[in-house]
Amino acid sequence: MNNSNMIKINALKKMFANSADFTVRNIELCDKANTSAAILTIEGMCSKDVVALSVINPLLLYNYKSKTPDALIDEIRLSVLSSSEIVEFNTLQEAITFSTSGFVVLMIDGAKKMLAIGAQGFSFRSVSEPESEVIQRGSREGFTEPLRINMTLIRRRIKSPDLVFETATVGYGSNTQLMLCYLQNCISKQILDEVRKRLQKCNLKMLLASGYLTEYLEDADNHSLFSGVGISERPDTVCGKLSEGRIAVLIDGTPAVILIPHLFVEEFQSIDDYSNRPFYATFIRVLKYISFLIAVFLPGLYTAFSQFHPEYFPTGLLVKTAESLAQTPLAVTLEVILITFIYEVMREAGLRIPKPLGHAVSIVGALVIGESAVSAGIISSSTLMVVATAAICSYVTSALYPQIMIMRFVFVISGGIFGLWGIVLTTCIFLINMCSKTSLGVPYMSSLAPFSFRRMRDVIFRADWKSLSKHTIKVQKFPETEEK
Amino acid sequence: MQSKIRFSSVRLMIVLFISACTVLMLYNVQNIENSTFANDIAGVIIGLLICLLYAVPSIIIKLRTKKDFISFAKTSTPSAVIFVSSYYAMYFAYLATGFLIRYCDLFSKSLNPDANKYVIAALLLAVCTYAAHKGICALSRVALFIFVFSIIAFLIIFGGNISNFDFSSQNFDIQIDYNAAFKAVSFFSSISFITVIFAFNSQNTNKFKKRHIILAIAAIFVLAALSLVFIYFVLSGYGRQQAYQMFILSKTSHFSFASGMDSFFLAAVTSFIFILISAVFTSVKNSAYSKGSKLVLNVFAVIVFILFVCAQRFNVIEDILTDYNILNVLNFVSAVLIPTCYMIIFRRRLSD
What we know:
The structure holds 2 protein chains of 2 kinds. Chain A is α+β, with helices and mostly antiparallel strands. Chain A is built from 16 helices and 12 strands. A 5-stranded antiparallel sheet of chain A has the order 1-2-4-5-3, with helices on both faces. Chain A is elongated. The two termini of chain A are 57 Å apart. The model of chain A has no long low-confidence stretch (mean pLDDT 88). Chain B is an all-alpha fold. Chain B has a single domain, classed as Amino acid/polyamine transporter I (Up-down Bundle). Helix content of chain B is 76%, strand content 2%. Chain B has a two-stranded parallel sheet. In chain B, a hairpin with a 2-residue loop joins β3 and β4. In chain B, α1 packs across α6, α1 packs parallel to α9 and α2 packs parallel to α15. The mean pLDDT of chain B is 87. Classes of the chains: A alpha+beta, B mainly alpha. At the A-B interface, α15 of A face β1, α5, α6 and α12 of B.
């Protein structure tokens, strides 16, 4: 091997700090000068069989006619290798990017150019149904970790040249590859440019999950509990959103795909709604909105009414509630906060501990909270019922769970201190916060406020497909979308 | 990045409607002593005409220049606008403090006598300041939810009282007591402050038509007349002598076994006052130059609170701040006199 390759390989080794997974395979090509070449791979990122059969074998067996190293590179690319993915490049930085992405890097002594040959072969989770978005009807496929497979899942559903994947790299430490995905006949150029700009401004060191990126994609001065960035693990959902002019951001290494712009009403829509009969889908939508309101307001209203306005309870319920509350040592507000807090602790514990132990937590929780605490007179049964109802309702719109949880605590505290007045005022704060929020310039509460009667057919109601298909929804056409 | 959001003028009308509903919710026969149904209805009709008249200058400015009055003033007299803004800041402080005092009075007399007025005022002002920072567009979006709630609240308050109608107790003779009629006119024409809010916030509204504001004002006065019908023909003589009749109406409202809808009244009046004060604060924000508007708004909220504290300490100040006659004079100056002067002086700009 002459100096040229040695220098490059040594530089790369130095960059990788002699990392154990950085491997170099030196070979000699069958040309007149017996030119030496080096094959660089990262162990575990490439399929060894593919490297041996599709890269090393053809390279060693071919009789080369070219005389200069750069001509050899061209000859290898055009006549020798059978791999479908071959990229020519010049710099060591690119060599690092390609090799860490599972490409084989080929260096020829004396050549300025290098080749990256697609031979990815790392192990990954197969395509399976996403646990966080379970549906009754429809596809069972969910996104998985490798970017290319996720791209395929979308492409298989939209067989159109309008579907565009645009590559970008974020994270100066992790160099994570991501894809902007959109339909060029649906997207607004302004929105697309804005997303590109925001991604360029992202100064993350490591990008390990989609959550890292969401805050960079949110509009500035939009401090809110609610997020203007949606997440989905379902390719069918993503395709539906793309057709409405949204952008999907696929991140390598995570099955959670980012969708922007994202609106409040989307939290109440699911892909199942479009498979079910319209009347049933409408019923489910209404159910979801009511459940959301119950989950947010019920504990707060209960606290406010029991402490400040007991006259609002019907007489029978008032007597029972008063009896139940009289036997407990804590004030209603504290009782509600305590039960909600314990419930949240159990929920969090149930999520984090290994599955076999999860049942134990449920049993302990049910016994401790459901039975013992009530019979010991620490908490009242009516309070327990209110918190439990709110907790169940909060799972109907599970994507909004974090927001519901925080709002519930705030309403309990404000209702406990100021009664109904506190709840009204807190509602005003949340409403103004939500109504002022935008997602890429589109009002977050769009369809409700600003109200659009026409869009109600896919917000509270779900009209039949004949009616829905007459009008295509484009997110950039929503009223009061900011022009920047 | 300069955002250029324009919103429907109908939504601004909803903000004005809700703001005006606060006045109806705070209807207090003690302010209008010796009043009769005929007097009050006369007050409603004359109040409606005054309100329509007050809206004319700002409508002309909006239609001719596509700007609201304060933007027109800023472009016409950039150096002198500080004096105009100062006057309007004083007017808005008077307006906001006046309604804050009335609301806190209602709260302590009817809803919760133990409530600390200072805490209520401070929290309400803080929330309204936050809302004003978000701007009139966001506020008008919130107003949509409150509008729906207000319809439900009014339906419950009125609908629950239909079975309580008693026409026999009323004297239908039309005898106008001029003193009482003047007070009624003064009370109902105070609603014309909404035309000033319109004059300060209509810059970014689109598709504005004259009929929008006319319909909004008409709807307010129809609601006022309806409220009077219920107050006079549902409440007994004793009930009418109590403070805050709409609150009593909400108490007497019932649907079979469910009675006492005052929770709806509390929620409605709180949300209405929130919209009213936030709209006033937004007007103050709009009157300032955009650079220092946030600071101006915060300082203004503190001034309103100080005025409120002073009013609680000194009855004279409270009397001045809650006097409907003074409010009417200020309404006239703010909605008619100053805009008309501008229109006359800068009539060329108006026709450009």
